[in-house]
């Protein structure tokens, strides 16, 4: 009884100090009803200026969806695995399909595309099933970025290919053991300038199923764990750099070093640029897909400016908190949403005009589900890690809400371990040098939102995985996510 | 006429599988047997052997040959504990990778560790003395709910009827092997729709198909005539009658296949790119796209910078194609080359034929039609 009174008193006091957020789930997941007869493997998802959704599907359909009347309408058909759409206007889009980037236009106003115009096909195709293409993503100058998969060792080259063949782009010694690049620019990120010319930007990609450009024209690309990719990464892609998968190097201008698979591992390792973010495999994500920036101005909750990324292999959307250290991007990833009715195969993400996040799902023979779902912010503020930033001797965590101070100040509530992943031709990498790192000091800010954690050691080249204990908000609400992983490439210079 | 053949393949695959399940028992004496089970991984997260039977106490060698492009493990559990073990594996969370996704519980009997693509691992164990259905499952994150099978330990060696076996994934109880839920289970069932609409010719697909570059465009026309126009080479590659495409291989799993022609090919180009403007062989041919005209495709390409438009219809009588060309800006004479071994006869609306080549003045070349008819019946 006494405890009850205390609780009431405490509650009244708190209410007097600040507004207690409404308890309950901050996000809900809704299913979108798909048209009958459609195999709803979603390859592309965008919104038109008129507010309708436009989606591309594996069997070549492009359809629009009126979010008010909930009616589907066929816009185009017959495409070869469309995996990305850029919206030009209500009746014109660009579609990335296997053989080309294509402009689809409804020129006669009947609501259906009648013009299928090539925008670019200046890249090779061997007919290998894995030659998926991604994008196009536009930058502030109106140039487009696309990403081209390497070809799969599980498939073959067809008898007739498009593009010049260079067999040095595949691993001859072990035959078909690794993804390959035997026609131009497989495994590259490319840039299409306004004059229609497609330029190679950067090499070394395996299966870059996600590309996004930020407000400062930085290009970010996800890749998939496998050969040469120890765990799935997010790369900050800059011109002329190499991101790790060797085959594509043969298409570097002036390449004269023979078969790149023959180069010593140390050489390849020294050439490559490390990921801005590593998504620990089996922990954070196994197959990250499209990243999107939250530019909803708060309509989707407190994470404006951060990245949301789909995960194919489980019922999860991942959130990424980037920062620049010594001029280079690195940062942390955290599960944003797990389950709540979300399916697997989260392949394409797009924010609707109303600020909800639409998710298109795809399995394509791998692990996943099909269909479209919508994640809606309920307005109830989540208790979550808002940012994780590097300090000179540890990390600073800022939460979305004031936290309960005794829990927030308890070092035992911050369990750090660190590890790294090998760069090698093998498929994926186990965690290396896994070690627990003690927290030596904890400070809490006056507003109780920011904790500063001092660690016993900080070593670049490692992922720092943080498991948070039971730290409720000031109002007793639990943290939504207790796992956050920081990719430490650079230390802060003092 | 059937324009699609869809379900046959599944049936065929299943039958193949029934006969290739490699379980062999070798007698090593009166009582000591070694049963070897060769396990592979099928697309769509499926063990190739979805169930097998062994005798109590028998020695078993289980080989996991990972033919998939994802990593997998294999855990044999006590009867009735598969779901529990999978749930425990999921709860391993961040400690999962270090644990090989194997939860610590006495429900786990034996384990084949995480096996990378194209790698193999094996396990030899003595089957339990107690009869029962011992599940095996991959506990890699996300796989556990669909990737499992059943080891029947019994003296009789009997297993329930496949279709009624609740110990194997539902997708494996019929004659399906890839767990592709939208495909019909039996050939006599009405085929599942291919699209949210019924395709009515003319319509098209961009597909990988034999006999063309990977940038092929396959078009179905009325009169059961179909053709493949190649955006990689900018010319008509082949044409066929009696059907269109079977895309079931292409649309199944990862699509490591090509579209199959249904019907019989009556035309195959031997000429290569057929158009010459002026005297010189063209040095640059550029594909530009196509426009749908009453749903018929009109292709647009450039020959050394000169725009050419080619609209293809079915021939009005018999099996064949009508190719309506426009070269609106042409100022030089145009030659259209053919070859006598292409399976068709050619006729033209204008110009003069000379040794299989149609010669057109610039004026004639602005708009002309070439009709191709299948030779014979």
Automatic annotation (TrEMBL), chain A:
InterPro entries registered for this protein in UniProt: 6-blade_b-propeller_TolB-like (IPR011042), Cu-Rt/internalin_Ig-like (IPR014755), DUF7133 (IPR055557), Quinoprot_gluc/sorb_DH_b-prop (IPR011041)
Domain spans labelled DUF7133: 64-227
Keyword Cell membrane: no
Keywords of this entry: Signal
Gene3D superfamilies in the cross-refs: 2.60.40.1220, TolB, C-terminal domain (2.120.10.30)
PROSITE patterns on file: PROKAR_LIPOPROTEIN
UniProt key word Signal: yes
Highest taxon of the lineage: Bacteria
Protein name: Glucose/arabinose dehydrogenase, beta-propeller fold
From TrEMBL, chain B:
Any one GO MF annotation of this record: electron transfer activity
Keywords: Copper, Electron transport, Metal-binding, Transport
Name under which the protein is recorded: Uncharacterized copper-binding protein, cupredoxin-like subfamily
SUPFAM superfamilies: Cupredoxins (SSF49503)
Alphabetical list of InterPro entries matching this protein: BlueCu_1 (IPR000923), BlueCu_1_BS (IPR028871), Cu-binding_ET (IPR050845), Cupredoxin (IPR008972)
UniProt cross-references to Pfam families, sorted A to Z: Copper-bind
Naturally occurring in which organism (per UniProt): Parapedobacter indicus
Basic and acidic residues bias locations: 170-192
Domain Blue (type 1) copper: 45-153
Region (Disordered): 166-193
């Amino acid at each position: 009884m006494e405890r009850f009174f205390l609780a009431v008193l405490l509650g009244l006091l708190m209410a007097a100090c600040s507004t207690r957020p409404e308890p309950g789930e901050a996000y809900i997941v809704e299913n979108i009803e798909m048209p009958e007869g459609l195999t709803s493997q979603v390859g592309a998802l965008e919104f038109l200026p008129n507010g309708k959704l436009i989606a591309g599907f594996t069997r070549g359909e492009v359809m629009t969806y009126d979010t008010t009347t909930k009616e589907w309408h066929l816009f185009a058909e017959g495409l070869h695995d469309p995996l990305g759409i850029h919206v030009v206007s209500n009746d014109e889009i660009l579609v990335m399909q296997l053989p080309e980037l294509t402009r689809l236009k409804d020129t006669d106003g009947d609501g259906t595309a009648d013009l299928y115009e090539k925008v670019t096909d200046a890249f090779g195709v061997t007919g290998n099933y894995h030659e998926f293409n991604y994008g196009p993503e536009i930058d502030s100058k109106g140039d487009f970025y696309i990403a081209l998969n390497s070809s799969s060792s599980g498939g073959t080259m067809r008898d007739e290919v498009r593009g010049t063949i260079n067999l040095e782009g595949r691993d001859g010694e072990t035959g078909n053991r690794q993804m390959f690049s035997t026609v131009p620019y497989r495994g590259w990120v490319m840039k299409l300038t306004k004059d229609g010319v497609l330029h190679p930007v950067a090499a070394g990609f395996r299966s870059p199923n996600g590309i996004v450009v930020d407000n400062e024209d930085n290009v970010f690309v996800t890749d998939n764990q496998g050969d040469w990719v120890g765990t799935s990464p997010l790369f900050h892609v800059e011109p002329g750099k190499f991101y790790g998968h060797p085959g594509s190097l043969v298409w570097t201008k002036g390449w004269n070093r023979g078969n790149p698979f023959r180069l010593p591992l140390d050489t390849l390792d020294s050439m490559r640029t490390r990921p801005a973010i590593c998504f620990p495999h089996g922990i954070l994500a196994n197959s990250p897909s499209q990243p999107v920036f939250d530019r909803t101005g708060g309509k989707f909750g407190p994470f404006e400016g951060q990245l949301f990324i789909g995960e194919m292999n489980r019922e999860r959307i991942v959130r990424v908190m980037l920062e620049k250290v010594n001029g280079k991007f690195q940062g942390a990833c955290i599960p944003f949403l797990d389950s709540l009715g979300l399916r697997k195969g989260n392949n394409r993400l797009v924010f609707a005009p109303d600020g909800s996040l639409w998710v298109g799902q795809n399995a394509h023979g791998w692990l996943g589900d099909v269909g479209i779902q919508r994640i809606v912010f309920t307005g109830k503020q989540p208790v979550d890690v808002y940012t994780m930033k590097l300090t000179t001797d540890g990390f600073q965590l800022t939460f979305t809400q004031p936290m309960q101070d005794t829990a927030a100040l308890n070092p035992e509530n911050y369990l750090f371990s660190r590890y790294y992943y090998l760069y090698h031709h093998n498929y994926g990498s186990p965690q290396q040098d896994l070690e627990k790192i003690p927290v030596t000091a904890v400070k809490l800010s006056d507003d109780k939102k920011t904790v500063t954690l001092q660690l016993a050691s900080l070593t670049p080249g490692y992922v720092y995985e943080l498991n948070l204990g039971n730290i409720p908000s000031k109002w007793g609400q639990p943290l939504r996510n207790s796992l956050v992983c920081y990719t430490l490439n650079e230390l802060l210079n003092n | 006429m059937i324009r699609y053949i869809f379900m046959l393949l599944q049936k065929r695959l299943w039958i193949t599988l029934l006969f290739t399940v490699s379980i062999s028992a070798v007698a090593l004496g009166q009582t000591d047997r070694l049963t070897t089970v060769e396990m592979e991984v099928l697309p769509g997260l499926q063990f190739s052997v979805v169930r097998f039977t062994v005798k109590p106490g028998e020695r078993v060698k289980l080989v996991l040959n990972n033919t998939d492009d994802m990593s997998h493990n294999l855990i044999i559990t006590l009867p009735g504990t598969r779901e529990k073990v999978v749930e425990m594996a999921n709860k391993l969370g961040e400690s999962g990778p270090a644990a090989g996704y194997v939860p610590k519980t006495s429900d786990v009997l034996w384990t084949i560790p995480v096996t990378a693509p194209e790698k193999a691992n094996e396990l030899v164990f003595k089957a339990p003395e107690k009869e029962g259905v011992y599940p095996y499952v991959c506990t890699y994150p996300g796989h556990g709910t669909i990737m499992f099978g059943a080891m029947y330990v019994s003296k009789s060696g009997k297993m329930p009827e496949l279709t009624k076996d609740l110990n194997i994934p539902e997708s494996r109880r019929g004659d399906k092997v890839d767990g592709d839920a939208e495909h019909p289970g039996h050939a006599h069932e009405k085929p599942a729709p291919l699209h949210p609409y019924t395709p009515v010719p003319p319509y098209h697909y961009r597909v990988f198909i034999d006999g063309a570059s990977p940038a092929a465009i396959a078009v179905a026309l009325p009169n059961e005539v179909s053709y493949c126009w190649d955006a990689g080479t900018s010319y008509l590659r082949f044409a066929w009658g009696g059907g269109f495409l079977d895309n079931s291989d292409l649309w199944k799993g990862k699509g490591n296949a090509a579209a199959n022609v249904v019907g019989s090919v009556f035309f195959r180009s031997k000429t290569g790119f057929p158009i010459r403007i002026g005297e010189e062989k063209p040095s640059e041919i550029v594909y530009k796209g196509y426009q749908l005209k009453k749903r018929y495709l009109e292709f647009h390409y450039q020959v050394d910078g000169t725009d050419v438009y080619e609209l293809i219809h079915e021939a009005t009588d018999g099996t064949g194609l009508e190719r309506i060309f426009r070269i609106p800006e042409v100022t030089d004479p145009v030659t259209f080359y053919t070859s006598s071994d292409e399976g068709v006869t050619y006729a033209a609306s204008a110009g003069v034929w000379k040794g299989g080549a149609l010669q057109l003045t610039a004026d004639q070349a602005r708009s002309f039609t070439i009709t191709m008819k299948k030779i014979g019946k």
